[in-house]
Structures are given as C-alpha cells and as structure tokens.
Amino acid sequence: MTTFLTDSTDINRINFSSRLNLHRRRELGQFLTPAPLARFMVGQFNSLLGHISLIDPGAGVGSLTAAFVERLLANSHEVKSCFITVYEVEPIFILPLKQCLIDCCTALENKGIAANYCLYEKNFIDANSEINLPLLSTSAINFTHAIINPLYKKINNKSIEKKIISQMGIETVNLYSAFVWLTILRLVEDGEIVAITPRSFCNGSYFRHFRKSFLEQMKLEKNPNFHKSFRSFSGI
Question: Can you give the pTM of this predicted structure?
Fold first, then answer.
C-alpha cells in the first residue's frame, strides 16, 4: 500500500500545529488527526468504487484526505474518478493543505484516476449558510463520502454559528454535532460518513432533536462509521 501521502502529511501536522499558541488552539477547537488514526478511519468505509466525491469539512493539513486517497490508490482498478472538497479556516494550514491536495491528485492521476480538488478557505458552517435549506433537503446533496475530525467546542448562544444553524432548523449545542449534521446535508443516498465524535455526541436531552433526525435518516453501522440510508427507525 502506498503510504507516502499520509506519512508526509503527518510530518506537516506535527510541524504546523506546533506553531499555534494555546489560545489559538482553544479558539479553533481543532485537534489534527495523527496518521494511525487517519488510516483507521478510512478503513471504516464500505464502498469505494466508481466515481468518488469526498468532503473533508475541517481539513487541517490534509491528514484524513491523504489517508483516504491512499486507500483509493490501493484499489485503483475499482476507482474511475475522485473529486475532493475541503474546508479550512486556519491560515497556517492552507499552504501544506494545498500541497497535500496537489500531491493526492497527482498520485491518483498517475494511477489513471481522474482527479481534482476544491479548497475553501472558509468556515464550513458559514459556508453552509449560503445553502439555507431545511435539514436533509435533497437539492443540497452531492458527496459520496465524508470524513470528519470536527471542531470540539460548545456553541455560544450569541455566536454567528448559532444563528446560522438555527436558521437552518438545526438545534444542537456543540460544533462537532453541527459539523456531522451539516455534512449529512451534503451526502448522496447511500453515501458514507466517518467521523470522530465523543461517545456522548447524541446522548441526553440536549441532543434529542439531533438524535431523532439523525436516526430517521442514517444507519449507524459502527463507531465511528455512519452509513447513509433513507430507512426510518421506528420508536424514535
């Protein structure tokens, strides 16, 4: 299996994350994914065939995307194309992230897989305010796969993030559940999402609305693997 993408990205993870001071780390609520965990996460996907469209809504330096592409390269005969969409707001990470994306697309193309990427230097939640659609509206769906290490912060009731997600009909108290919820908006039917979340990400009264909508629209296969399906669960 080709490993150079994730290994080189992991060096950048250590190097560039160390440049953030503690205040900035707390402000972002972002913890970059080490290579072994990134590889474990991509191993949770069930179907990687045909035309792939990936979204990584909090990309950092590209650890998860690099690991995902490595897995595609290991089964390149089954993949026809790969389009990668990433979001990142921290300026320090943009240059290594862009290089990671270029390297990923080059490696895919060298295997005969059509590849391209789109890098948004903006907050994923802010970007979704442009959609302004009800939860899980089909007109917003376009990704076959999603991989997420979301931000780990509570949402301030007076913040712009709270205003945006409330306008979209999303009621939750933490950014990580908001990231998962908004990503679900962007999946095709039978798409897959693999996410790192706390065990309590949908427990208790605070997450009742999130839990109900999530289980109506998703099939929870394993932790942390969520498989998109439009089968409803009874008794919710």
Answer: 0.77
Give the number of other Cβ atoms within 10 Å of residue 120's Cβ: 15
Cα separation, 96 vs 113, whole angstroms? 23
- Average pLDDT for the chain: 76
How many domains does the chain contain in total?
1
Q: For residue 181, is pLDDT > 70? A: yes
In a domain, 39, yes or no: no
**Residue 89: inside a domain, yes or no?**
yes
The span from the CA of 46 to the CA of 230, in Å, is: 17
Mapped onto helix, strand or coil, the DSSP state of residue 235 is coil
Query: What type of residue sits at position 69?
Result: V
* CATH at residue 133: 3.40.50
Question: Which DSSP symbol is given to 76?
Answer: G
The encoded tokens of residue 117 equal: 């990427």
> pLDDT tens digits, residue range 31-68?
677 788 888 999 989 889 999 999 999 898 899 999 99
pLDDT of residue 115: 97
* Range ranked top by mean pLDDT from 24-28, 139-143, 179-183: 179-183
Tell me if residue 185 falls in helix, strand or coil: helix
* Helix, strand or coil, per DSSP, at residue 119: strand
Q: Note whether residue 234 is domain-resident.
A: no
> What residue numbers bound the domain in which 132 lies?
4-32+48-228
Round to whole Å and give the CA distance between 109 and 129. 34
Residue ranges with strand state E in 47-168: 50-56, 79-87, 114-120, 143-148
